[in-house]
Amino acid sequence: MSMTTLTNSPQAPLTTSLQTRRLPLWSLISIGVGAAVVAYLVFKIGGLLDAGWVLTIVGAVLIFLIVLAVVSTVVEGGRSARNRVATSLIYSAFILALLPLVSVVVTLVNKGKTRLDGTFFNNSMRNITAFDSGGGAYHAIVGTLEQVGIATVITVPLGILAAVYIVEYGRGRLANSIRFFVDVMTGIPSIVAGLFILAFWVLIVSPHFSPTDKPFYSGFAAALALCVLMLPTVTRSTEEMLRLVPGALREGSYALGIPKWRTIARIVLPTALPGIVTGIMLAIARAAGETAPVLLVAGGTPDRNFNPFQGNQESLSVYIYEQASLASKYGPPRAWTAALTLVALVLALTVVAKLLSRRTKLNQK
Amino acid sequence: MAKRIEAVGVTAYYGAFKAIDGISMVIEPKSVTALIGPSGCGKSTFLRSINRMHEVLPGARVEGKLTIDSQDIYARDVDVTAVRRTIGMVFQRPNPFPTMSIYDNVVAGLRLGGVRRKSVLDDACEKALRAANLWNEVHTRLNRPGAGLSGGQQQRLCIARAIAVEPQVVLMDEPCSALDPISTLAIEDLISELKNQYTIIIVTHNMQQAARVSDRTAFFSIDKTGDPGRLIEYAETAKIFTNPSVKKTEDYITGRFG
């Protein structure tokens, strides 16, 4: 008797179940399909809000989220519902962010492939009129490579050394002001960099190198303008990477009696190398796409000019600008192919740089 | 090999903050000296001022006199890298160079100090790894990254790296505090072997460890937070742990404060 009263006494269960009810996969799929169908009927067939495809898809996603929230709350409870809605939102945002990127690549490849031929890569625009279908971007590719190459050769050592100074040596007001101005320079509009080089290099300095004492355009001037744009990016990203290198590594090196400069050159910089390379590649990609400053100080030309120190020079981005605005049906296809070439060039450079910086990271030795 | 270190009135600052005040002690060659005391009492600061690592931090400076075999460590004409090569250091957390292999880590001090000969480096590497009781575990994979070892192995790698440059004094700043008991035991055994060749100074929070490995023990303490650390008592380890002459030491040893 007393036993039964004990066992029957009202008591909260000591253990609560760890299992909860979960929505099965098929229910999620059917909610999705249902939402798509409803959205299609309401917006597309029903013509609500005069909707096209975009609004239909947005509507489908919204209906899916609302139904999912309701169903999940009823079946699984509030926490699970919030989790499901948040997860769905994150995936939607991811896809939304990816769309323009994919769209750009697809458009580039689609429109660029029409002129992706030998003529394009072996010819300049010399003697090509609005009625001629041929012509190419050979001169522009060489121009871009030379200008960006010179700019990189000048910028990378300067930028890295500046960052080393700021992080490892700079103390007090000087280092702070340099860091501040590097930050300010990061935001300089590229046209301003172009104007600066136009005023400083082309108009003031270049006459001294000219036999006729006349100012002249050159690919080198374009490279200088690109330097102005790349330097803050390289310095800033290198600075960030150097700051990430743990102080314990520097101390470990000092404690072995290794001088400071050697510690920086052999311990700190190699440790930060992959990040520094990424920063440099970002700077190069930005510089390769700059149009305004190159147009301003290198002038652009339909002819081949492989000498970056003398006379007008073309670059891919200037070429794109010219061809896209050309009053000829042959212009735009050339511009698309040039754009595709430019993107491929930057991509190839990035891949190579990444591989190189990874190779130095041990394992193979 | 081993050398005698003498500190007279060593006072160290971090900017305006006085971290240790007037430390005077003599550290005998070929012995293990343990520095114990509560957190913030300046043991590590004193240790770091012995090989001039204290001044690496911005605003940090040292006053007083520190000599190694009666040569002033802080004299104007002293090359700081030579001091650090003579007085090696092992840190609290293992810090192998992440871009380097095990081999490169061990010979880093020699190679970056200007030694180029492959045979010299190879010999030094094997010798240091053997001395650090790590050779048997890693000799087949010297080309693998040093950061891929376990924590205890990494710490022994750092010890090997420190003794590869053939210092005469080895400073250890809580070398076992990030390690498990088995790795700790390995390092303690290593310390007892190393003292046949080197003068060893070890900072530790583990009093049993101090009692186990050290010949002499120095007890540091502070009156209250913000005050500089002082040397309270310095004597044979056995005396400190069984019959300390200062009341404060006894309180700390028996766990009544700190």
From TrEMBL, chain A:
Tell me what topology the record assigns in the membrane. Multi-pass membrane protein
- Indicate yes or no for the key word Transmembrane helix: yes
Where in the cell does this protein reside? Cell membrane
Describe the location of the ABC transmembrane type-1 domain by residue ranges: 141-353
List the Pfam families hit by this protein, alphabetically.
BPD_transp_1
Q: Which Gene3D superfamilies match?
A: MetI-like (1.10.3720.10)
**InterPro entries (UniProt xref):** MetI-like, MetI-like_sf, Phosphate_PstA, Phosphate_transprt_permease
Keywords attached to this Swiss-Prot or TrEMBL record, sorted alphabetically, are: Cell membrane, Membrane, Phosphate transport, Transmembrane, Transmembrane helix, Transport
The record's SUPFAM superfamilies line, in alphabetical order, gives: MetI-like (SSF161098)
**Where are its TM segments located?**
23-43, 55-77, 89-109, 148-168, 180-204, 216-234, 267-288, 335-356
Q: Which family does it belong to?
A: Belongs to the binding-protein-dependent transport system permease family. CysTW subfamily.
What's this protein's function?
Part of the binding-protein-dependent transport system for phosphate; probably responsible for the translocation of the substrate across the membrane.
NCBIfam families to which the protein is assigned, alphabetical: 3a0107s02c
Q: What is this protein called?
A: Phosphate transport system permease protein PstA
* Organism expressing this protein natively: Rugosimonospora acidiphila
Q: Which gene encodes it?
A: pstA_1
TrEMBL record, chain B:
Asked if the Swiss-Prot or TrEMBL record annotates the protein with the keyword Iron-sulfur, the reply is no
The record's SUPFAM superfamilies line, in alphabetical order, gives: P-loop containing nucleoside triphosphate hydrolases
Q: Which SMART domains match?
A: AAA (SM00382)
- Kindly list the GO molecular function terms attached to this UniProt entry: ATP binding
**InterPro entries cross-referenced by the UniProt entry:** AAA+_ATPase, ABC_transporter-like_ATP-bd, ABC_transporter-like_CS, P-loop_NTPase, PstB-like
The record's annotation in NCBIfam families points to: 3a0107s01c2
Can you name this protein?
Phosphate ABC transporter ATP-binding protein PstB
